[in-house]
């Protein structure tokens, strides 16, 4: 059951990005969340929320493949995704590989880390 719950949380997170739903961001992202972006930046929770609710815009996020491996209260997600997104006027659309680390804490699964690679060559 953990796998389906984590996949559901992944989708909830990216749906919230499309909707710019800050309350969902705060619930899903652990206080010590850290993104290592495909563009070579490190971004903590507050900065990610500010960007995702501001200049980072996502129009669609499609899960092409997703694999979840759980280890007690920790889960690692490897995913291949396609997004239509932008930062201001810059297009950030394309295919990406993501690695997310989730921890069961505070009575729920929260993401503590995301690493993105891409955009990849057209698939």
From TrEMBL:
InterPro entries: DUF4440, NTF2-like_dom_sf. Gene3D superfamilies: 3.10.450.50. This is DUF4440 domain-containing protein. Residues 6-111 form the DUF4440 domain. It comes from the Bacteria. SUPFAM superfamilies: NTF2-like.
């Amino acid at each position: 059951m953990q796998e389906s719950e984590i996949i559901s949380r992944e989708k909830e997170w990216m749906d919230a990005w499309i909707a710019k739903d800050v309350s969902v961001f705060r619930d899903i992202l652990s206080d010590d969340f850290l993104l290592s972006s495909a563009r070579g930046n490190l971004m903590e929770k507050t900065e990610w929320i500010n960007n995702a609710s501001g200049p980072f815009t996502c129009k669609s996020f499609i899960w092409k493949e997703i694999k979840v491996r759980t280890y007690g209260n920790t889960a690692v997600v490897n995913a291949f995704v396609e997004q239509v997104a932008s930062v201001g006027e810059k297009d950030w659309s394309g295919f990406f590989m993501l690695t997310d680390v989730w921890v069961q804490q505070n009575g729920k699964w929260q993401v503590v880390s995301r690493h993105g690679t891409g955009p990849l060559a057209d698939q």
